[in-house]
């Protein structure tokens, strides 16, 4: 796997250098739209519905349509004026019980791999999350935008799960659920009995994507029977066209505990200031990567 982000987990005064990897991938079979007659690729051009001209990418800007139908154009210059988040630290804001995080909030999953010097604090954080059955709520900057996320343990890996913002969760409005439905005790007991009889350990590897298997078989059969088209000449042309420093773990942990006690055990999440982050790096002796964030794409 190829890492897509490097940084560190800021855990109290402990810094855990890590690399971020995508934890999932799609196995959908992708199709091109082609001309049935000769197999040529169907291309789509960016055209303006006002002047009917093809528009080059550099002349395309973002447009937002208001509720009244008016169009607001947003240029790259406008976007540059917005506050941009940057940095390569995953800041632990608070710890919560795992059951308190609604799975509906989960968005994308990433594996966190520790560097050689980060193996011990990584293992410490992993063990603490496991034994306490908690998740760490963190903030992370991906693609110049700050995201809320949760750290949880899966087997021996710490997984970073980005979270949707609360206003991104749609509120259901099903009036039928407000109606009183009479369910008899005997029906409940029978349903419980059925559930118990069908209860077993969940093993996802026992399940297969039957549609995908059948689709792949269909493609293989067509290839074997010679039902293929050679790519056109145009298609052929296009196709050719520092971790050596040691972390003083115990002293960093003790300093973190002392600092938490001085705050009086406040449970209100607070983002650390730049000065406190500087103290963190000095306490752990770990240099934070200064690699710039990926450029924002249009």
Detailed description of the structure:
By secondary structure, the protein is of the alpha+beta class. Among the domains are: 5-27 and 82-168 and 242-284, Ku70, Chain: A, Domain 2 (Beta Barrel), CATH 2.40.290; 183-230, no CATH class. 27% of the residues lie in helices and 23% in strands. It contains seven helices and nine strands. The strands form two sheets. A seven-stranded mixed barrel has the order 1-2-6-9-8-7-5. It starts with a strand and ends in a 14-residue tail after the last helix. The relative contact order is 0.19.
Keywords:
Ku70, Chain: A, Domain 2, 298 residues, 9 strands, disordered C terminus, two-stranded antiparallel sheet, alpha+beta, single chain
Write the SSE topology.
Blueprint: E1 5-11, E2 14-22, E3 62-65, E4 71-74, H1 76-80, E5 89-97, E6 106-114, H2 119-132, E7 134-142, E8 145-154, E9 157-163, H3 185-198, H4 210-224, H5 233-240, H6 249-262, H7 274-284
Parallel strand pairs: 1-5
Antiparallel strand pairs: 1-2, 2-6, 3-4, 5-7, 6-9, 7-8, 8-9
Number of helices: 7
Termini separation comes to: 26 Å
The backbone outline, from C-alpha atoms, is extended
Largest sheet: 7 strands, mixed, barrel
Helix/strand-derived category reads alpha+beta
> Under the CATH scheme, which architecture of the domain at 5-27 and 82-168 and 242-284 would be assigned?
Beta Barrel
- N to C succession of SSEs: EEEEHEEHEEEHHHHH
Mean pLDDT: 80
Poorly predicted ranges: 242-247, 270-298
The helix content, as a percent range, equals 25-40%
């Amino acid at each position: 796997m190829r890492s897509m982000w490097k940084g560190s987990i800021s855990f109290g005064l402990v810094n855990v250098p890590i690399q971020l990897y995508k934890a999932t991938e799609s196995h959908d079979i992708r199709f091109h739209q082609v001309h049935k007659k000769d197999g040529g690729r169907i291309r789509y051009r960016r055209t303006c519905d006002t002047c009917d001209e093809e528009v080059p990418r550099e002349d395309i800007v973002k447009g937002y349509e208001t509720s009244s139908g008016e169009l607001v154009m947003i240029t790259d210059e406008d976007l540059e004026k917005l506050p941009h988040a940057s940095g390569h630290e995953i800041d632990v804001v608070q710890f919560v019980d795992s059951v308190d995080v609604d799975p509906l909030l989960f968005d994308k999953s990433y594996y966190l791999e520790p560097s050689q010097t980060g193996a011990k604090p990584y293992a410490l954080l992993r063990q603490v999350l496991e034994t306490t059955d908690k998740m760490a709520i963190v903030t992370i900057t991906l693609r110049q935008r700050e995201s809320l996320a949760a750290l949880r343990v899966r087997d021996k890996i710490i997984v970073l799960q980005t979270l949707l913002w609360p206003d991104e969760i749609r509120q259901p409005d099903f009036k039928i659920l407000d109606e009183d439905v009479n369910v008899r005790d005997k029906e409940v007991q029978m349903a419980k009995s059925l559930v118990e009889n069908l209860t077993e350990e969940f093993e996802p590897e026992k399940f297969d994507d039957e549609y995908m298997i059948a689709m792949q078989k269909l493609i293989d059969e067509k290839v074997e029977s010679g039902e293929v088209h050679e790519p056109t000449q145009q298609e052929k042309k296009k196709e050719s066209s520092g971790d050596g420093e040691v972390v003083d773990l115990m002293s960093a942990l003790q300093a973190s505990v002392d600092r938490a006690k001085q705050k009086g055990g406040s449970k209100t999440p607070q983002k650390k200031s730049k000065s406190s982050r500087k103290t963190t790096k000095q306490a752990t002796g770990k240099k934070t990567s200064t690699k710039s964030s990926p450029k924002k794409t249009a």
